[in-house]
Design brief:
single chain; 437 residues; alpha+beta; OB fold (Dihydrolipoamide Acetyltransferase, E2P); BirA Bifunctional Protein, domain 2
Length: 437
């Protein structure tokens, strides 16, 4: 692959009056009688204007792939940074039909139908760059703190979060499922490698149409031996703060392009606020917060109800920093969550809620290390103990106190970008109604 300049590279006094060659796609085009004005978009979303005699631009259309050579000229009137290129030589790699389906203003449904083309828009490419930085700095934090990254399978035999949300697949002559979480495999690895983590695609067959649910999502998960609830929260708040501050620095122009006010984000640092589940319920009851019953009626929230989207929004609507809610009722949590030995029916669990109503982005807990306790929980949740034989072996052979969490990266990106719908921050979202492109 030959080296060539990108649009933003040449926007400096150093290149003024120098001849350069750039490659990219036609973002906008305006043809006049003698001169044609073109906005060129490169493969990182940078844009610069070039001019070329109209007689050389007859075949140019929106999204045609080209190479342009010419002299850089500093001109305050030029859009996109005050520099333009006076084009001389033009090479066309691929001409696009004139009926390009995506115009300047389109519906969200059309943009999803043509997502394979919509990812070329400056908005989507900017989101993709910020998302890439978030993933990069996630990995960097774990590397710098001596956690080891592992790869877990996404084809599994059993549930982690409950059988009702599993995607079933045919696996040769057997039935298997798409993984809901890498957690159980991460737990196996703490015995061999200590603190471990992964970024994996997870799948939930939840019939949900909310602005924060996807059928396939990017899942960052981590497990560590001899880690307890307080340290578990510290790891998450340090990780999230590190990701945010480094991404703000690295992608400042991208946030500006998206008109994202980062004032509150720039103040995100440990420690995050902490609130017990009991206090959260008391606050919601004091505000006459209600939950929907099975018969369609509403009643005030009570101790034992899980927090839903609306309750999380109510708790965090005035927060400027993330909020940990801890000590949920044990019956609201999966079989592997440890019960507090000093408080009956209370779990040693935490949910991390993003501020301003963005809701849960992470959930974690101390893991139950006693094999008999896990067996009782598996039975109580009507799961098949035989299906978890290998997992129970982890407790039979040298069980260790340990904790872990799962962070929804798409939800994290949604909050950092301040966007309403999670589909806007995923390149190719998968929902109940959408499995293409």
């Amino acid at each position: 692959m030959s080296t060539y300049l990108r649009c933003n590279d040449v926007k400096s006094n150093y290149y003024d009056e120098k001849e350069v060659t750039l490659r990219g796609w036609i973002h906008r085009i305006r043809k006049q009688k003698e001169i044609t004005f073109v906005l060129l978009r490169d493969d990182r979303g940078g844009v610069i204007q070039f001019t070329i005699p109209t007689k050389k631009a007859i075949d140019l259309t929106i999204e045609s792939c080209i190479q342009i050579s010419g002299n850089v000229k500093k001109d305050a009137r030029a859009p996109e940074g005050g520099y333009e290129i006076r084009g001389k030589d033009l090479k066309i790699f691929g001409t696009a039909p004139a009926d390009y389906p995506i115009g300047e203003y389109q519906s969200q449904d059309l943009l999803l139908d043509y997502r394979h083309l919509a990812v070329r828009t400056r908005r989507m490419s900017t989101i993709a760059k910020i998302r890439a930085s978030i993933l990069k700095f996630s990995r960097q934090w774990f590397i710098e703190n001596d956690w080891l990254e592992i790869n877990a399978p996404v084809i599994v035999k059993d549930a982690v979060e409950g059988g009702s949300s599993l995607f079933e697949i045919k696996y040769f002559d057997r039935i298997a499922f798409l993984s809901q979480s890498a957690q159980l495999y991460l737990e196996a690895m703490v015995f061999a490698l200590g603190p471990v983590w992964s970024i994996t695609e997870s799948f939930r067959a939840e019939r949900s149409r909310t602005v924060r649910h996807l059928a396939e999502f990017t899942h960052l998960e981590a497990e560590a031996p001899w880690m307890y609830q307080e340290e578990l929260m510290k790891v998450q708040e340090n990780l999230v703060s590190f990701i945010i501050q480094n991404t703000l620095t690295n992608n400042s122009p991208d946030f500006e392009f998206l008109n994202r006010n980062v004032k509150e984000l720039s103040s995100i640092s440990p420690p995050f606020e902490r609130m017990s589940y009991g206090k959260a319920v008391d606050i919601l009851r004091s505000r006459d917060f209600t939950v929907l019953c099975g018969d369609g009626a509403h009643r005030k929230i009570e101790w034992g109800d899980d927090l839903n989207i609306e309750s999380e929004r109510e708790l965090t609507k005035d927060c400027v920093k993330p909020l940990f809610v801890y000590e949920f009722p044990i019956d609201t949590k999966p079989f592997y969550v440890r019960e507090d030995p000093t408080k009956s029916e209370i779990s040693l669990s935490t949910d991390l809620l993003a501020p301003r109503g963005f809701g849960e982005i992470s959930s974690g807990s101390e893991r139950e290390s006693d094999v008999e306790s896990i067996e009782k929980r598996i039975e109580k949740q009507s799961l098949d103990p035989k299906a978890y034989g290998w997992y129970l072996d982890l407790r039979r052979y040298g069980s260790v106190p340990h904790s872990g969490f799962g962070l929804g990266m798409d939800r994290l990106v949604r909050w950092i970008l301040g966007m309403e719908d999670i589909k806007d921050v995923v390149l190719f979202p998968r929902t109940m109604s959408r499995v293409t492109p």
